[in-house]
């Protein structure tokens, strides 16, 4: 079973405390929602677990400490702010190019991911002509198309309409039910309540409350 353990994780920028001694165990087969106001540290928690920032303390991915055998968790899908999409390619080509890196996704997995986020795999339009919501859907497809064990999504419902949120919920539940560990950060309480099984309230760089839904 996939497990991510944070032990006394802290982060300072200059003298400002960004993450304040976080200890918590995340388990596979669950969808966690990081909830809290702007600037409380939700994105930084995701970045820390994804290996994008260095922190004090210990982060363990399935028993292996981040920064020892690997700097980034293997088998991770990530949607982080300012996700890079290639504007001069179609949605399908965007996934095909990424697929060449890990070589786990075949054409069927790519098309399937696009359909699951509500995009048409046969759409010949380039991404530069996509609406914001379509770009967000493609960014979500990037995070899930290789069926990773760890899925980290920062503000995944930005620019999505209500149908989009419902579609993403169904998709994330499928990923959860096959055992993936999913962590979502959002300041939109209604969306998080819709998507998550466990809400973690973040304040001042700490988890101040755990709420099971
Ligand atoms: N590069 C940086 N240098 C200094 N401080 C930073 C940097 N990036 C973020 N911070 C600070 O870290 C704190 C936590 O930021 P974080 O992005 O995690 O907030 P958040 O909870 O995700 O907020 P939001 O809902 O606005 O996305 C904020 O106070 C922010 O000002």
Number of helices: 6
Share in β-strands: 25-35%
User: Bound compounds, please?
Assistant: adenosine-5'-triphosphate
Low-pLDDT stretches: none
Organism: Lacticaseibacillus yichunensis
GO molecular function: ATP binding
Pfam family, one: ABC_tran
Protein name: ATP-binding cassette domain-containing protein
Word description of this protein:
- The chain is of the alpha/beta class and 213 residues long.
- It is 31% helix and 31% strand.
- It has 6 helices and 10 strands.
- The protein has helices at residues 42-49, 91-102, 107-116, 132-144, 162-177, 189-195, and strands spanning 3-13, 16-27, 30-35, 56-61, 64-65, 76-79, 150-154, 181-186, 198-203, 206-212.
- The strands form 2 sheets. It has a 6-stranded mixed sheet, sandwiched between helices. The chain has a 4-stranded antiparallel sheet with strand order 2-1-4-5, covered by helices on one side.
- A hairpin with a 2-residue loop joins strand 9 and strand 10 (206-212).
- Helix 2 (91-102) packs across helix 3 and helix 3 (107-116) crosses helix 4.
- The longest helix has 16 residues, at 162-177.
- The radius of gyration is 17 Å and the shape is globular.
- The two termini are 21 Å apart.
- Adenosine-5'-triphosphate is lined by residues 13, 18, 36, 38-44, 185, 187.
- Keywords: ATP-binding, Nucleotide-binding, Transport.
- GO terms for molecular function: ATP binding.
């Amino acid at each position: 079973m996939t497990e991510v353990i944070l032990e006394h994780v802290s982060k300072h920028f200059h003298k400002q405390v960004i993450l304040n001694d976080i200890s918590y165990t995340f388990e596979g087969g669950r969808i966690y929602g990081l909830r809290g106001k702007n600037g409380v540290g939700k994105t930084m928690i995701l970045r820390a677990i994804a290996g994008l920032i260095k922190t004090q303390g210990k982060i363990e991915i399935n028993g292996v400490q981040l920064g020892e055998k690997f700097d980034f968790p293997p088998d991770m899908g990530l949607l982080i702010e300012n996700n890079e999409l290639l504007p001069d390619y179609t949605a399908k080509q965007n996934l095909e190019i990424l697929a060449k890196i890990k070589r786990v996704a075949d054409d069927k997995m790519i098309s399937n991911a696009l359909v699951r986020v509500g995009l048409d795999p046969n759409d010949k339009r380039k991404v530069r002509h996509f609406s914001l919501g379509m770009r967000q859907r493609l960014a979500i497809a990037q995070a899930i198309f290789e069926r990773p064990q760890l899925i980290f999504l920062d503000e995944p419902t930005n620019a999505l309409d209500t149908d989009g949120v419902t579609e993403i919920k169904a998709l994330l539940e499928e990923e959860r039910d096959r055992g993936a560990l999913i962590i979502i950060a959002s300041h939109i309480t209604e969306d998080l309540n819709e998507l998550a099984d466990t809400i973690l309230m973040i304040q001042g760089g700490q988890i101040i409350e755990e709420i099971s839904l």
